[in-house]
Amino acid sequence: xxxxxxxxxxxxxxxxxxxxxxxxxxxxxxxxxxxxxxxxxxxxxxxxxxxxxxxxxxxxxxxxxxxxxxxxxxxxxxxxxxxxxxxxxxxxxxxxxxxxxxxxxxxxxxxxxxxxxxxxxxxxxxxxxxxxxxxxxxxxxxxxxxxxxxxxxxxxxxxxxxxxxxxxxxxxxxxxxxxxxxxxxxxxxxxxxxxxxxxxxxxxxxxxxxxxxxxxxxxxxxxxxxxxxxxxxxxxxxxxxxxxxxxxxxxxxxxxxxxxxxxxxxxxxxxxxxxxxxxxxxxxxxxxxxxx
Length: 292
Known about the structure:
Strand order of the largest sheet: 2-1-5-3-4
Low-confidence stretches: 56-79, 178-184
Order of helices and strands: HHHHHEEHEEE
Largest sheet: 5 strands, mixed
Mean pLDDT: 78
Helix content: 40-55%
Number of strands: 5
Radius of gyration: 53 Å
C-alpha cells in the first residue's frame, strides 16, 4: 500500500497546510510523530500560523524547484495514487496516533497539576508553620511584658512602704518621742471582745477592707487595703490623692471615724485596720488639724 507523505498525512488529519509545513520544517523533517508533537505543544501559540521566512522546499514534500526537477522528476511521475480505502486506512492510523499523543499530553498535564498541588500544599504548610512561630513569639513577648509589669508593681509597692516608714519617722520626730514609745496606748479597749470565749467559733476572717474617706470639700475617696495594713497607709493615700487647697499649703490629715465618732491619734496610725475595727468596711472623715 502506498504511503502518504508526512505533509499529506497531516493535512489529511485536518491540520492547516501552513501549520503542518511549519511543524515539519522546525522539527527537521524527522517524521510525522515529531511534527505532531510540535503541533500539540504549540497549538495555543499566538504565532503558530505565521509562515516561515525561508522556503520549505523539498523537506515538506512539495514539488521540487526548477533546479531540483532534474533529480526528482522521475520519482514524482512514478508515485502511485492511493485508493479511497487506503487513504481511509492511513487516516485512521494517523487519528489513532493523534489520540495517543492527546492522551500522553493529558497525562503530562495531570502530572504537572499534581506537582503544582503538592507545591501549593507545601507552601501552605510552611506558611502555617511561620504563623505558628509568629504566635509563639508574640506569646513570649506578652509574657515578658507581664513579668515586667509585675516587677514594676512590686517596686511601686515597695516605694510606698518605704515612704510610709519615712513618714512615720518624720511624724515621730515632729511630735516627739519614738515609735516604740507611742505603742503603749494599744491597751485601750476597742471593739474587739475582751474575752476570747465570747467570740463565735465561726467568726469570718477578712483579708481586705474597703475604706471610704470623706474630704472637707464634700468629695470622697474609696480604696481597698489589706486588713493588716496600718492606718498610716490610709492617711498616706489621702495625702497623695486629695486636691491642692487654696493658698498652696497642705495641713496635716486628721482622720475621724463616723460612728461612733472617734479621733484617731498618732499611736493609732501604727495599728492595723483589723485591730481598729475598720474591717471589712468603714467610713472615715478628714478633719483639718491645726499645727501645734
